[in-house]
């Protein structure tokens, strides 16, 4: 895959009507939001937060069979050899208040290549509020996962098509509920093969 986004809908963040906006000055501060002026009332309903994965060694593919890590490509499934492949994805600076309730969250990926393979996988979160970089010794299969998981079973992909994961809000909420979670922390996900057929990989 050539790119990936995380979209989160959070019902606890922004002003929602004109009267609130009039008495509120909103200024960007380090990718976040700063509310200036004192408010006597504040109507809050929902907001959308979007983040892009960190283009570094924090993203890539684990070859679980050979215990190796490749940060040049993001893949999962079962290669033709066969080798079990798991993806690791890290979102840097996810601005979610600890008190917020996440109602929906998705991964969006742009496919590289076309195939008709059926790929079965489970999505997990890395249970670490300040997850570090992946490496040959710190791989998706070797680190703590969330209890929450979401199955993602796909039947095909078309080159450059944008694909949306199932709703992963349960995973995001578990990550956000960690005692040391702070808005602006990293958020890391794992897409682990789940008995895909040989040669079926994304």
A few lines on this structure:
It contains two helices and 13 strands. The protein is mainly beta and 202 residues long.
List keywords for this structure.
mainly beta; 6% helix; seven-stranded antiparallel β-sheet; 2 helices; four-stranded antiparallel β-sheet; globular
What does this structure look like?
With about 200 residues, the chain is mostly beta strands. Helix content is about 5%, strand content about 35%. It contains two helices and 13 strands, in the order βαβββββββββββαβ. It has helices spanning about 20, 170-175; strands at about 5-10, 25-30, 30-35, 45-50, 60-65, 70, 75-80, 85-90, 105-110, 120-125, 150-155, 160-165, 185-195. Strands 5, 6, 7, 8, 10, 11 and 13 form a seven-stranded antiparallel β-sheet that branches. The chain has a four-stranded antiparallel β-sheet with strand order 4-1-9-12, with helices on one face. A two-stranded antiparallel ribbon has the order 2-3. β7 and β8 (about 85-90) form a beta hairpin. The longest helix has 8 residues, at about 170-175. Mean pLDDT is about 80; it is low at about 10-45.
Structural class: mainly beta
Radius of gyration: 19 Å
How widely separated are the two ends? 8 Å
Task: Report the order of strands and helices.
Answer: EHEEEEEEEEEEEHE
- Please count the helical segments: 2
Mean pLDDT: 78
Strand content: 25-35%
Stretches where pLDDT is under 50 for at least 5 consecutive residues are: 9-45
| Count of extended strands | 13
Strand count, sense and barrel status of the largest sheet are: 7 strands, antiparallel
Can you tell me the overall shape?
globular
